[in-house]
Amino acid sequence: MGVLSFLARRFVAGEDTFSAIEAARRLNGEGLKATLNFLGEESRDPEQTQGTVAEYLRSIRKIGEKEIDANISVKLTQLGLSLDQQLCLDNLFLILEEAKKTKNFVRVDMESSAYTQRTLDIVAAASKAGFLVGPVIQSCLRRSQKDVEDLNRLGLRVRLCKGAYKEPPGLAFDQRREVDENYDALAAALLDGGREPAFATHDDRRIAHVVRCAAARKTVRGRFEFQMLYGLRRRRRRELAREGHQVRIYVPYGTHWLPYFYRRIRERKENALFVLKGMLSD
Ligand SMILES: Cc1cc2nc3c(=O)[nH]c(=O)nc-3n(C[C@H](O)[C@H](O)[C@H](O)COP(=O)(O)OP(=O)(O)OC[C@H]3O[C@@H](n4cnc5c(N)ncnc54)[C@H](O)[C@@H]3O)c2cc1C
User: Quick check: 92 and 123 in contact, CB under 8 A?
Assistant: First the structure.
């Protein structure tokens, strides 16, 4: 895998569908679920978006054939959102139709705030059309409390994360403490009124908060899940699964793995540290 092979091997499952399915199978063997993400974003070319769709159709079929406990996570800009919204919708619906055949769920990742409203609108429309689909909410955004209220009302399955994009201060909290406090408040709101929420974080304090909130509400463990990125906190994820929690691992794969690292390192220096910390601690 070239110059970054050491990093890539730990954080990316491989370059093809087979590697992703095998990674998911290994995770299933450890009692963990998976969500497969074919790496890429900001497609500049309609043909490229078709390649992405073809890959997702292949991975959804393989998940079904091999009886893997996994779903997929897609990015709307990879399906053409910044080129042509109709192209993106057509692409997304092809993927949703395929997933529907095996009653599988499709997660739509959240990208920068430039796409938040369009992404939420598209996911809500797809859900209304009868597809099993759910969005991601970022606790760094000030708007997220209102979004969670709306999504709870609609009964959509939400993944909560802190947010990986550098955002303008007006739209986002700039202090880490505020992002964390908002994460905890949104987690409580999702446990109170949400449908099968997913808590994506490697942060022990956030995890402990979710566990406390769920216990206080007597939420059954199967009604929510924790999610972590492939290659990070491997010991912790096993502990959570052993404690009886559902844990899903985000498994990125594909040949466009370089931007996956570059974007995080370039956009936010904390993410470079985050990758390094992941390599040093397990
Ligand atoms: C499954 C999943 C899906 C995601 N999807 C999206 C998405 O759609 N959109 C988006 O914008 N972002 C997404 N993200 C990224 C997310 O927004 C954050 O940028 C990223 O997860 C880092 O935030 P954190 O909550 O893990 O905690 P951080 O703020 O990075 O870390 C907080 C604390 O957690 C502990 N910690 C973190 N990592 C380790 C480690 N390896 N070992 C030991 N301790 C550690 C440390 O105490 C650290 O101080 C996703 C993340 C995950 C896990």
Answer: no
* Catalytic one of 107, 157, 159, 237: 159
CATH at residue 167: 3.20.20.220
pLDDT in tens, 39-81: 998 898 999 999 999 999 999 999 999 999 999 999 999 999 9
Give per-residue pLDDT as tens, 98-121: 999 999 999 999 999 999 999 999
In this structure, the residue with its CA closest to atom 47 of ligand 1 is: 203
109 is catalytic: yes
Tokens 């990758």 found at: 275
| Closest residue by Cα to residue 57 from 42, 74, 43 | 74
| Domain carrying residue 190 | 5-280
The answer to whether 234 is a known catalytic residue is: no
Query: Looking up tokens 């209220």, which residue turns up?
Result: 149
Closest residue to atom 35 of ligand 1, CA basis:
203
The verdict on pTM exceeding 0.90 is yes
Q: How many domains does the chain have?
A: 1
| Residues forming a β-bridge with 247 | 226
